[in-house]
Amino acid sequence: MGKKLILFIVIAIVAFVVLFYVFKFVLITALIIAGVIVIAPLLYFAFLAGKARD
Q1: CA–CA separation, 32 vs 47, rounded Å?
Q2: CA 12 → CA 6, 7, 27, 43, distances in Å?
Q3: What are the pLDDT digits (tens) for 28-51?
Q4: Residues 6 or more apart from 36 whose CB is under 8 A from it?
Q5: Using H for helix, E for strand and C for coil, what is the string for 14-42?
Q6: Please, what is the end-to-end C-alpha distance for the chain in angstroms?
Q7: Backbone torsions φ then ψ of 23, nearest 5 degrees
Q8: Alpha carbons 27 and 19: distance in angstroms, whole number
């Protein structure tokens, strides 16, 4: 029973670390995508406004 418990704890820790890193990666990616979605139209409108002035 002791060996199975240690194995279970090791697997749980590994799974937690993997999920944590995957989640962190997904979170950073989601923030970058959200940033692009917010910034791209602003840059586009700024570009159009700059062109309209010429």
Answers
A1: 21
A2: 10, 8, 22, 45
A3: 999 999 999 999 999 888 888 888
A4: none
A5: HHHHHHHHHHHHHHHHHHHHHHHHHHHHH
A6: 78
A7: -65, -45
A8: 12
The total of other beta-carbon atoms located within 10 Å of residue 11's CB is 10
| pLDDT band, residue 53 (cuts 50/70/90) | confident
For the record, the structure tokens of 19 come out as: 């999920």
| CA dist., res. 26 & res. 33, Å (int) | 10
d(CA 10, CA 26): 24
Rounded Cα gap, residues 45 and 39, in angstroms: 10
Tokens at 9, concatenated: 């704890």
